[in-house]
């Protein structure tokens, strides 16, 4: 190993080479020694820091301690130098080496374990710097992820032009032989290719399986930049965009990375970089996707320094030795990384620290080289001993038993199982039987065998107490379908259902007051159960009401149920067809306003808001006749003269021709919700001595 001796050239004319210079060499498993001559370390000067490891040499000598990954100090004998002086061996250990940029093994790892043929094609096009005649060393990771069975015979009818053959799944499902996705055609063949590369990359990076999503994105990104056989070994990205493809930004997946923290988001003494794991490339703009080890989320930045020869295991070792990997946790038990992408500006500085005007910090470009400095570890100061608290500990106050009454009081059950152990079980069971009788009376469903290939929707019981003040008026139970599992195009199509606008309600109330008209309020019981279904939907039998001997059968819905996605629309269509068939006209501007003009000059206006109705008219007999017709088709509840609508209380003075709307109960509920029911009222929200300014 030929080098110029630093001691022979003079210390005042040449400084010691910067310790952050990286040695470029091929991998070696042998021991390396640290030499000392005449009480001082030997400095082997080299501007490029490139040296050759000779497999036949007895010793390999390194002048710097920081090059070692493992090191054992001691007296290991002496070595005779070229100037006939004798140097003592200070220690023996193993050395971390960095592969050359032109190494085929490095590009093999960067390009998601691309085949040797693909690397040679890229090198032939001068897209990657790889020496001619070099080969990739046998890769055990490729065997773990890419070992195949016997391949299928190639199809003789290979298509050559675009759109000569289009693979489209227009029928199905089509059954194939178990474990042979090749039968499904070209589209399925890419899936195992992607999975194999993902397995190799995760294995190489020693990352856990929850990182499979990032690995898939990276593999697809690299496949689009790899030679493609169907395209005559062209690059898919270049063939698609007709632009040259660059490879200089590629890095080894899962390697150690340091992301720069802008000075605006850190204090003067905070680290300028944070350790991360490289997990992919940006989608829309240039930038690297990194896994923040401390915040446990995916971030994106373009100011990154990579250590491609280090990976997650090295980060764990750094943590164990107390080096720069502080805060690194075991990722084998990490949760799946969030898909939320954040820019580097999300790195937050501590809020309790403020920056004072200081001398401008040296913000050298992080892309200009490795800025790491070899520093001696500072002696750790002894932490001051914490004093023991002298505060007198008192037992916590115990509340009287009466304060726990509301906690132990049973309210509304959450499910059918809670009903069985509820103190009001009989009342809730009676409410459930009433709901089931309503379903049977309405002919909502029928029991059938589940057709092959179809799935059922789940359902649940919902319980509600109807109260008048503190008094329980009614126990109500309702069977609700879990419609969130419905699929558009199969279980439903259109779902929009209009409601009357508030402006229409105000106009009708104004007409009632000015013209002294009759104003009636009606409510439809179980409105959504009246809608007819046109889709074929199957549901499990209601819990607790399975028919004996038919437990294996399912409910085929004939009419809509609460919880179905299309239930509101089906109810509106049913009601709309009823009103149109009885001579009422729907206004074009307001779909939920129905008007009928009679020959004697009278008229009736009906407003519909889901299951609430307001009826306005002059003739009481005609209004009563409409109520009878509605009751024949729907289960109605006549609430008499309108006293409230949509939470608004209605007060009328028919003699004076006036009508008032108020939301007093709503305001009281709002105050009680925010614990302000006993607050003192004021005439103005702001004291009158305050002056407002622009």
UniProtKB/TrEMBL annotation:
UniProt-listed SUPFAM superfamilies: DNA/RNA polymerases, Ribonuclease H-like
Gene Ontology BP annotations: DNA integration; proteolysis
A GO term for molecular function: metal ion binding
Organism: Rubroshorea leprosula
Keyword S-adenosyl-L-methionine: no
Domain Integrase catalytic stretches: 179-244
Highest taxon listed in the record's lineage: Eukaryota
Name of this protein: Integrase catalytic domain-containing protein
Keywords tagged on the record: Aspartyl protease, Hydrolase, Metal-binding, Protease
Region named Disordered: 316-403
Compositionally biased tracts (Acidic residues): 343-374
């Amino acid at each position: 190993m030929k080098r110029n001796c630093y001691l022979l050239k003079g210390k005042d004319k040449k400084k010691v080479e910067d310790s952050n210079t990286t040695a470029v060499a091929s991998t070696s498993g042998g021991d390396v020694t640290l030499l000392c001559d005449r009480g001082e370390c030997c400095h082997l000067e080299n501007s490029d820091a490139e040296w050759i490891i000779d497999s036949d040499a007895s010793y390999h000598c390194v002048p710097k301690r920081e090059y070692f990954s493992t090191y054992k100090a001691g007296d290991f004998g002496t070595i005779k130098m070229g100037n006939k002086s004798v140097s003592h061996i200070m220690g023996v250990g193993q050395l971390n080496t960095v592969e050359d940029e032109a190494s085929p093994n490095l590009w093999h790892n960067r390009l998601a374990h691309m085949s040797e043929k693909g690397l040679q094609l890229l090198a032939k096009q001068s897209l990657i710097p790889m020496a001619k005649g070099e080969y990739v060393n046998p890769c055990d990771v490729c065997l773990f992820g890419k070992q195949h069975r016997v391949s299928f015979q190639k199809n003789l009818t290979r298509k050559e032009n675009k759109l000569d053959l289009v693979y489209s799944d227009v029928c199905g499902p089509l059954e194939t032989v178990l474990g042979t996705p090749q039968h499904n055609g070209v589209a399925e063949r890419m899936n195992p290719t992607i999975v194999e590369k993902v397995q190799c990359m995760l294995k190489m990076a020693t990352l856990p399986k929850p990182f499979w999503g990032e690995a898939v994105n990276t593999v697809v990104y690299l496949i689009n930049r790899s030679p493609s056989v169907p395209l005559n070994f062209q690059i898919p990205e270049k063939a698609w965009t007709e632009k040259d493809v660059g490879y200089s930004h590629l890095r080894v997946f899962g390697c150690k990375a340091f992301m720069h923290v802008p000075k605006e988001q850190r204090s003067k003494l905070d680290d300028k970089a944070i350790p991360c794991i490289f997990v992919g490339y940006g989608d829309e703009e240039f930038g690297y996707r990194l896994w923040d080890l401390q915040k446990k989320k995916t971030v994106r930045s373009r100011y990154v320094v990579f250590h491609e020869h280090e990976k997650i295991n090295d980060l764990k070792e750094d943590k164990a030795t107390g080096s720069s990997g502080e805060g690194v946790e075991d990722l084998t038990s990490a949760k799946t990384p969030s898909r939320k992408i954040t820019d580097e500006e999300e790195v937050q500085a501590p809020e309790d620290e403020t920056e004072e005007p200081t001398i401008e910090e040296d913000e050298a470009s992080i892309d200009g080289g490795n800025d790491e400095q070899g520093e001696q570890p500072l002696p750790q100061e002894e932490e001051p001993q914490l004093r023991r608290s002298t505060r007198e500990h008192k037992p916590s106050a115990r509340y009287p038993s009466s304060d726990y009454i509301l906690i132990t009081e049973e309210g509304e059950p959450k499910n059918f199982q809670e009903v069985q152990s509820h103190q009001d079980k009989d009342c809730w069971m009676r409410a459930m039987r009433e709901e089931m009788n309503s379903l049977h009376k309405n002919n909502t469903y029928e029991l059938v065998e589940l057709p092959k290939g179809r799935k059922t929707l789940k359902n649940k019981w919902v319980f509600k107490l109807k109260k008048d003040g503190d008094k329980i008026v009614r126990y109500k139970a309702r069977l609700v379908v879990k419609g969130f599992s419905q699929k558009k195009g199969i279980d439903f199509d259109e779902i929009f259902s209009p409601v009357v606008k508030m402006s229409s309600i105000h106009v009708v109330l104004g007409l009632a007051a000015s013209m002294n008209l009759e104003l009636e309020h009606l409510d439809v019981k179980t409105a959504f159960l009246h809608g007819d279904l046109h889709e074929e939907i199957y549901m499990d039998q209601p819990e607790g009401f399975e028919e004996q001997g038919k437990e294996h059968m399912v409910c085929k819905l004939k009419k809509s149920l609460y919880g179905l996605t299309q239930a509101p629309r089906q109810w509106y269509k049913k009601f709309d067809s009823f009103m149109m068939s009885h001579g009422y006209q729907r206004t074009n501007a307001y779909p939920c306003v129905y008007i009928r003009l009679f020959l004697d000059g009278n008229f009736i206006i009906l407003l519909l808001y889901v299951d609430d109705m307001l009826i306005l008219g002059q003739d009481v007999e005609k209004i009563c006749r409409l109520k009878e017709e509605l009751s024949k088709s729907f289960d109605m509840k006549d609430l008499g003269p309108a006293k409230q609508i949509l939470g608004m209380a209605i007060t009328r003075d028919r003699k004076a021709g006036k009508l008032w709307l108020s939301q007093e109960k709503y305001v009281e509920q709002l105050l009680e919700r925010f614990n302000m029911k006993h607050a003192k009222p004021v005439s103005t929200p702001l004291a009158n001595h305050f002056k407002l300014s622009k």
